[in-house]
Amino acid sequence: MEGDKDNVPLPVVTFFQPQASQEPLLFSLFTGNEVALRRFLPKSHISNVIIRDNTSVQRVQEIKLKHLDNSKRKVGNYFEHMKKSFLHDQQNKMNRWKQQYSRYQRMLEKIDQRAMQEATSNHLMLLPAQKSSLHVPKPKQKKKKKTPGGGVKWGDAGSTSF
Fold first, then answer.
1. CA-to-CA distance for 85 and 129, rounded, in angstroms?
2. Residues 6+ apart with CB under 8 A from 156
3. Could you give the count of Cα atoms lying within 13 Å of 70 in the half-sphere of its Cβ?
4. Angle 126-127-130 from CA coordinates, rounded to 5°
5. Contact present, 158 and 140 (Cβ < 8 Å)
6. Which residues partner with 143 through β-bridges?
7. Distance, CA of 74 to CA of 81 (rounded, Å)
8. What contacts 140, CB < 8 A, 6 or more positions away?
9. In this predicted model, which residue has the larger pLDDT, 26 or 146?
10. What are the angstrom distances between the C-alpha of 74 and each of 64, 68, 82?
11. Which of 72, 109, 130, 159 suits a disulfide with 126, CB 3.0-4.6 Å?
12. Does the pLDDT value for residue 137 go beyond 80?
């Protein structure tokens, strides 16, 4: 084994010659300021990563702003729709109340007309001698009634409602 060690060639160490620094050529589309800027920038890809990250963050912000604008527009449209439907419902309610009021008003007018017709027909049927002897009592006025709670209630004194 000792003889084998003597036969093994020794490793050879070689050193490469240093490369000469290359002078930057101004043969490019860049201006002098951009070339100088590139000379001082790091030669790693970190700057590209940062730029891409900034663009992706900007894109996310644009998407969020677009989403906010869309939701704002939708909420505004929904508000306008609800406002129109509320006003439409209120208008329908007022029209229904007017119709009901006019219907009851016509019914009351018909009742008044019938009462007037009955009064005039009864009045015409009487003979002139009976008219002078007939005494028509005055209608009773409404008087205040005291309620047990101390309040005042309006109504006919002693009359019944129908």
1. 68
2. 140, 142, 143
3. 6
4. 80
5. yes
6. 155
7. 10
8. 156, 157, 158, 159
9. 146
10. 15, 10, 12
11. 130
12. no
